[in-house]
Design a protein that fits this description.
The protein is of the alpha/beta class and 278 residues long. It has nine helices and eight strands. The protein starts with a helix and ends with a helix.
């Protein structure tokens, strides 16, 4: 009887979805870089999403900002991997984007272990994380290439966005933007202190829209029209640039939506969930 009960318990555990927290995917400066993961019940292989949170490059975490995506992806049969990465003021862009690349490499290297379909890995980021996935998707290498990129209200032209914030502060939540900048986020994350010719040139060199090219992964941009931190125009501009280059880009517009998917609570704003999965 005990043997039967033990076998039943093992079988039950084997048939349950796998959820793990604080798995190390890399190390930097002697500290572990961690991710949380979910793998559906079954043998797969499953489509997968690597989630990159926002927070102005100096805030946010793998368990908070992207939380609205967890159930949407899990209910659609996706495995997901939500990552933490190095933040400002200790870290700068070159370090943080390397964390994102290492997370992609880790998921690819562990695809068999977690029943991930190597041909169906999507990179999903929101806000500052949207910028990071936009950059990764336009600067792919053979070991960091993904099947698709989903950008939730992430900047694609940081120089233009910074100028808009400077020239039209009434359009933006400058309290939040200035808080991030004071902590090493915003333009300072890219080593820029002033929006002079040199600073704008540096921001242009890291802008994903400047690196659009044929053959890159298809993009899906999801953006609220009333965004007060990242101007809505950034997303259609990215799609226009990709279309001109012969790349695939689609846009889901959240009419009246502000900055942050957690604020899109009204039923008429929920259409992004099935549309993103599709």
């Amino acid at each position: 009887m005990r043997s039967f009960a033990l076998l039943l318990a093992i079988a039950t555990m084997a048939g349950a979805p796998l959820d793990r927290k604080d798995i190390e995917y890399g190390r930097a400066g002697g500290k572990a870089l961690l991710l949380d993961l979910h793998v559906p019940d079954g043998t797969g292989p499953f489509p997968a999403a690597i989630l990159v949170h926002g927070g102005g490059f100096d805030e946010g975490s793998k368990s908070t900002n992207v939380r609205p995506l967890f159930d949407v992806l899990a209910n659609a049969g996706f495995a997901w991997f939500s990552i933490d990465y190095r933040l400002a003021p200790e870290a700068h862009f070159s370090q943080t984007i390397e964390d994102v690349y290492n997370a992609i490499r880790w998921v690819r290297a562990n695809a068999a272990k977690y029943h991930v379909d190597l041909g169906k890995i999507a990179l999903i980021g929101e806000s500052a994380g949207g910028f990071l996935v936009n950059y990764a998707g336009t600067h792919e290498t053979p070991d960091t290439k993904v099947a698709a990129v989903v950008d939730f209200y992430g900047p694609v032209d940081y120089g233009q966005l910074a100028e808009l914030r400077r020239d039209h502060p009434e359009r933006f939540n400058m309290t939040a933007i200035n808080r991030h900048a004071a902590n090493g986020g915003g333009i300072r994350f890219f080593g820029v202190e002033r929006l002079d010719d040199g600073g704008l040139a540096k921001l242009r060199t890291v802008s994903p829209i400047a690196a659009v090219h044929k053959g890159m992964a298809p993009f899906l941009c999801i953006h609220g029209t009333k965004d007060d931190q990242v101007a809505y125009e950034q997303s259609p501009a990215m799609c226009d640039a990709m279309h001109k280059a012969g790349a695939s880009c689609e846009l889901i517009k959240i009419d009246g939506g502000g900055h942050g998917m957690s604020g899109w609570r009204a039923p008429e704003l929920q259409h992004w969930k099935p549309e993103m999965i599709a």
